[in-house]
Amino acid sequence: MKQVEKTISYWEYSDDNELSSEDLNLLQKAESAIDGAYAPYSAYHVGAAVLLENGEIISGNNQENVAYPSGLCAERVALFYASSKFPEVPVKTIAITAKAKDFIIDKPVTPCGSCRQVMAESENRFHNKLRLVMKGETGKIFIIEGVNNILPLMFHADELKKK
């Protein structure tokens, strides 16, 4: 038996001023998307914006439902809408941010496991690494190159193939 370690890598920015104009614009689109979130149960409003390789930006926000599994995260709303509108265009970058009703989110908002797996599928489908730009209401910003840095032991289609 042996212990195996896997490390992740990400960029940490102090504030918006350190971002490229492309990343800042995408993050602002994600912040604007927060306003359309439907979150009456958690009061945690999430916005996401997806930049496609063709330059299009698609936004989404979380949509809750009293039957919790029936809701959908902002990231998947944006990714699925982008895929339905531009099925052959790869995703370049996704920006994610959030606001809460009763507290300030001062750490970068990271995607849930289901969203991470959907992002991994996008990478595998188009054979390109996705960039993630993550921010809270205040504080630092994380930028991650590649879903493997947030989902190091992701599920792959190869595991479905029978021999």
Please specify the SSE layout and strand pairing.
Elements: E1 11-13, H1 21-33, E2 44-52, E3 57-61, H2 74-85, E4 91-100, H3 113-126, E5 131-135, E6 141-145
Parallel strand pairs: 4-5
Antiparallel strand pairs: 1-6, 2-3, 2-4, 5-6
Written description of the protein model:
The protein is α+β, with helices and mostly antiparallel strands and 163 residues long. It has a single domain (11-136), classed as Cytidine Deaminase, domain 2 (3-Layer(aba) Sandwich). 24% of the residues lie in helices and 23% in strands. It is built from three helices and six strands; from the N terminus they run βαββαβαββ. It has helices at residues 21-33, 74-85, 113-126; strands at residues 11-13, 44-52, 57-61, 91-100, 131-135, 141-145. The chain has a six-stranded mixed sheet with strand order 1-6-5-4-2-3. Helix 3 links the parallel strand 4 and strand 5. The chain is globular. The two termini are 27 Å apart. The mean pLDDT is 95.
